[in-house]
Amino acid sequence: MKIVRTPFLILLLLASISCQPKNKSGKQEVAQKEESDTHLETKLTSEQLQEYETAYFASGCFWCVEAIFESVKGVKEVYSGYSGGSEKNPTYEQVSYGRTHHAEAVEVYYDPDVISFMQLVQVFFGSHDPTTLNRQGPDRGTQYRSIAFYKNDKEKKIIQDYIDKLEAENVYGNRPIVTEVEPFEKFYKAEEYHQDYEKRNPNNSYIQNVSIPRLNRFKKNFKSYLKEDVH
Predict the structure, then answer these.
(1) What is the per-residue pLDDT across 137-178, written as a single tens digit (0 to 9) for each?
(2) Is 61 an annotated catalytic residue?
């Protein structure tokens, strides 16, 4: 069972960079424009996606989390969105400013014949710091909290057993794991310009200074989990 002890997210030089929009026009309009200029691989259809299993996680800005899971072998598609709250049809502006109980989350479609739910849980814990309450990297607020969602008792046990193992092996020292283990209820897909955001906006300052370094740390520690075309 793979456990990574490397510390995550050195923050001292990143205090001024955040996934949260600084204003209504700046980041969102740039994202929409760059999206239209970039050609990405074709998404799977809804019918094709039905052939795979789904898993749901929240661990900070969904731009980062989506890119990490997309690099994992057996993962067929990842969507950024919102989950963990009760509000219906939340928007990015509502969630990112903490006006809902939702967290930025991802929906992962995966082939269980290639990668297991247990391995996805390892990816989840190995790609963020689960000891920081309502914070991940430079992003602060309950919308960036750590959540591992489960769809049945088997998944719940897998998550909880892995947390127990991490704590028993003192992976994070004296820092307790604050990840919420919650039943999955509803996932709301985020606005289209958030999908594949890292690929569409490689020169964005947040992507350059937070998302790409986070992805590279993950790739360094989980080489055997990566797709063949991921370097």
Answers:
(1) 999 999 999 999 999 999 999 999 999 999 999 999 999 999
(2) yes
DSSP states of 174-223: TPPP--EEEE----EEPPGGGTTHHHH-TT-HHIIIIIHHHHHHHHHH-G
Would you state the pLDDT for residue 44?
A: 87
The residue from 19, 55, 58, 61 that is catalytic is: 61
CB atoms within 10 A of CB 44: 14
Query: What's the CATH architecture for 48-225?
Result: 2-Layer Sandwich (3.30)
- Mean pLDDT of the residues in the chain: 88
DSSP string, 86-118: --SS--HHHHHTT-SS-EEEEEEEE-TTTS-HH
